[in-house]
Structures are given as structure tokens and as C-alpha cells.
Amino acid sequence: MRQIQLTEWGDESVLHEATVPIPSPVRGHVLIKTVAAGVNPIDVTTRKGLGPAAQLADPSYRPFVPGWDVAGTVVATAGDYTGFSVGDGVFGMVTFPHPGGAYAEYVLAPAYQLAKVPSDVPCAQLGGAPLAALTAYQSLFEVARLKEGERVLIHAGAGGVGHLAVQLAAQAGAQVFATASAANHEFVRSLGAQPIDYRTEDFRAVLGQTMDVVLNS
């Protein structure tokens, strides 16, 4: 199979394509044939030698295969129960901050870090969903503990994290406000938020009272 590797930190020039054996399934894992892999700011940060790179100095991590967000099809298991079967569409953010190896044609991933692809969502779209969705969910519910009926302001409501946070907050029964440019107001409104034009309006004046939660990603 083909994968993208690097052996030292740096700019885009350190990335190269290599051909390596397809991994064999191991207990508790599934082998995924990659449909899409997400490219997030943390991937760029790590490639430069920052952020999680400090935890990846061990020579056993070389060559390093970037990428943590992956979506694809299960093609093999180790025979143990994982909750998935060959042919299932799955997606997830795998083994972060340890190497996830998502920039590859096949990815060996822990089954407990994966979810099944919904029947009404194209698998390829979910390659970019896990990190942003987990950021939104953890921020709103594990840190801020947002509850039904509370007022929440989400800055950059049309952004990668923001548009997912709007939907999660609305689904939880919160009253959602979101800053966005005028061009994105209909999009933000369709997700369940009252839009505020950050270019022409002062969100504090529009809201008029205290928020229970503010998410500024």
C-alpha cells in the first residue's frame, strides 16, 4: 500500500510517498481501507515539530505517518468481537496524540475509537469530521456542561468547529446565537442558530443579556 511519511520535522518538503506492506489485523483493531483522511491544523503543527511532536521523538515512531481523522471501509478484523464487520463504513479520530497513520491507503485502528458511517452521509465527508466534532462536543458538554434551555453564543458559527457546535447545541435544546458574516447567515440559521453579523453588529448589544455559555474556538 501507499502512505505519506516523514523522517524529520519541517515544511511540506519533508513529506514523501512510500510503499509498505498492508498491516495485519490485531486484537481489538480493525483494518480500514481509507476513503478519506482529514487534514487539520494539528497535522501541520505536528509536521513542523510542534505540539504533539514533542511526544513523538522516540525513534520507534520513524518514519512518522501523519493524520488522525479517517473514514473508510472495514476490510479485516482479528476475529475477536469489535462491533464491526467486514464491509462496514467507519470513521474516527484514531490514537491521538500517538501516530494515527491516516495518510495511507489502509489504516489499522482501535475499534473503540470508531463509529459507523450513517446511511445518509457520504463516507468521504466524514474524513474531516472527527476532530472538529469532538472539539465541539467536548467544549460544550464536557467542559461547559451546556444544558437544555440555556443560552449559548458560538463565535464563527459557520466554521469547521462552529457549524458542528451550533447543531449539537440546538439538538440539546439550547437557545443558540452565532456570529457569522452576512453571506453565511442563512446557513447558520438553517443549523438552528440566530446569526449575528460580526462585521456590522456588536454581539453584546444584540444579545442584551448574559450568556450561560460562550464558545470561542
**Helix proportion of residues, in percent?**
10-25%
**Strand arrangement across the biggest beta sheet:** 6-3-4-5-7
Order of helices and strands: EEEHEEEEHEHEHEHE
Span between termini: 36 Å
Total DSSP E strands: 11
| Shape field | globular
Q: Name the beta content range.
A: 25-35%
Task: Please state the oligomeric state of the protein chains shown.
Answer: single chain
Helix and strand content put the structural class at alpha/beta
Low-confidence stretches: none
The helix count comes to 5
From the alpha carbons, calculate the radius of gyration and give it in angstroms.
20 Å
Mean pLDDT: 95
| Biggest beta-sheet profile | 5 strands, antiparallel
List the helices and strands and how they pair.
Blueprint: E1 2-5, E2 16-19, E3 29-37, H1 41-47, E4 69-77, E5 89-93, E6 106-110, E7 115-116, H2 130-143, E8 151-154, H3 160-171, E9 175-180, H4 185-191, E10 194-197, H5 203-207, E11 213-215
Parallel strand pairs: 8-9, 8-11, 9-10
Antiparallel strand pairs: 1-2, 3-4, 3-6, 4-5, 5-7
Helix pairs in contact: 2-3
